[in-house]
Amino acid sequence: MAGKIMKVITGAGALAGAAYTGAGAVFARKLAMPHVYTLAEEEKWEKEHEVWGDYDLIPRTNYTVTGKDGIILHCEYAEANPGSRKYVILTHGYTSNRYGAVKYVGVYAKLGFNCILYDCRGHGENEPAACSVGNLESQDLVFVIADAYRRFGNDIELGLHGESMGSSTSLSVLKYKPKVRFVVADCGFANLYDLMGYLYSSRHAGFMREPVNFMMERMYHFNMKQTSARDALRGNTVPICLIHGTADTFIPPENSDELAAATAGYKEVHKVEGAEHARSRMVLGEDEYRNIVEAFLERIS
User: Fold this and answer.
1) Which of 206, 221, 236 lies at the terminal end of a domain, its last residue?
2) How confident is the model over 236-290, as pLDDT tens digits?
3) Are 169 and 120 in contact (CB under 8 A)?
4) How many CB atoms lie under 10 A from the CB of residue 299?
5) How far apart are CA 47 and CA 237, in angstroms?
6) In whole angstroms, what separates CA 16 from the centre of its chain?
7) Which domain holds residue 9?
8) Looking at the structure, do residues 271 and 203 belong to the same domain, yes or no?
9) Are residues 244 and 120 in the same domain?
């Protein structure tokens, strides 16, 4: 009898374990292979929310860059200021694409910058690929940066700007010591493992973080704990401007405080009252948002 009971318990435990890891695999796939928006959908959204600006009037060139492991990244060069030696690479957020970053082009165009926009792996016009929410993406950005210098010259002044996942990507790339003048990081997260713990807990599913991380490593070969802009900033001296909405419940504004504390270089933190996730540019308007960036650039010049 005791043997039969143990078999039942063992069997139940195995089933529970299988269900646990199975659920982890489902959640991991949803995170790594999300539904992503098309360029047309992003363009429509930005025009409807009046943040597309004069982008249609700016001369644009499309090209590709080969990123980590040979992945092809679709890029777009917006030559807002012909003859200028100032450039900024704009990195979009999770499930978005390069057109999701158009809202920032007007900010930099009026500051004399030309803009480079690109689709992160698995997004936009790129082939389907697992998204690591900033880990592999930051390694891809190394290649986009190197291409910018080959394409436009070693004497250019190059900065980075990112939103949400793009923000953490733009900060995480700093551990590879690229030649960049500054980073403007809008509503980024400090560490993906911590963020997913917060998000799952807010939905009463905090217990899922461990199996999701386990399956992320098994299925997609990266650990959420190592997707950490906070860790990437150790010893960093590149100036950083952090912008975050006070009403952001997806990536709480405390993340920007953590990131500011992590860097060794000059940093500013700007909290935008009442702005929800990735809405600071919309709440402030282009002029006021540009004022923040312009003042930051003047202070580090």
Assistant:
1) 221
2) 999 999 999 999 999 999 999 999 999 999 999 999 999 999 999 999 999 999 9
3) yes
4) 11
5) 37
6) 35
7) 1-32+193-221
8) no
9) yes
Q: In angstroms, rounded to a whole number, what is the distance separating the alpha carbons of residues 166 and 24?
A: 25
| Shared domain check, 184 and 213 | no
CA 133 to the chain's CA centroid: 7
pLDDT digits (tens, 9 = 90+) for 99-127: 999 999 999 999 999 999 999 999 999 99
Buried b (16+ CB within 10 A) or exposed e, 7-46: eeeeeeeeeeeeeebebbbebbbebbeeebbebeebbebb
Q: How far apart (Å, rounded) are the C-alpha atoms in residues 143 and 139? A: 7
Are residues 153 and 26 both part of a single domain?
no
Same domain, 246 and 233: yes
Instruction: Identify whether residues 28 and 156 lie together within a single domain.
Output: no
C-alpha to C-alpha distance for 259 and 120, rounded to whole angstroms: 22
Q: CB–CB of 36/122 below 8 Å? A: yes
Which residues neighbour 151 within 8 Å (Cβ) at sequence distance 6 or greater? 77
Instruction: Please say whether the beta carbons of 183 and 160 come within 8 A.
Output: yes
Domains: count for the chain: 2
In the numeric block, the tokens 């792996």 are attached to 121
Per the structure block, which two tokens stand in for 171?
């900060």
